[in-house]
What we know:
3 helices
Amino acid sequence: MKRLTIAILAGLLAWPLAVLSENPPAGAQEQVQDLKKQVLELNRDLFLLEEELLFPSNTQVSVFLSMDVGSFFQLDSVTVKLDGKEVANYLYTPREIEALIRGGVQRIHVGNIRKGEHELVAFFTGKGPHGRDYRRGATATIRKGLGPRYVELQIVDATNNQRPEFSVREW
């Protein structure tokens, strides 16, 4: 319902722009540009409002993934479970893996949870040392209080034993 209302508002605001851009009277170009700017600002404000309504900050939890080097582990996919319920399952492309290795961070999940303790389990699937199939998991207990909670899933190469290490860190 909310998306339909937003679409209708955007359509109503865009219609005069289309009419003016077909037959512009003198000085109308500036007005068209101003209207376009106002529509873009309204669209951004509506998007932020929708995010705030769907994921209020006092119940919000965000899960991110980061990698360091990736010499001992080539990531294929990640599955995330929160309190026993699967909330994210992501299959990576080679370009996404390269972006993570270069320092990128991916937001895997945004959701709402109640105040208290919650169990987060992440399963990492890929190729490990010597090209073997590799599937490992990491578990953590998240303590949700007031305000948003941020959780980072980290894949780090451990050079001392030449294996990947998987960890969960709360911010």
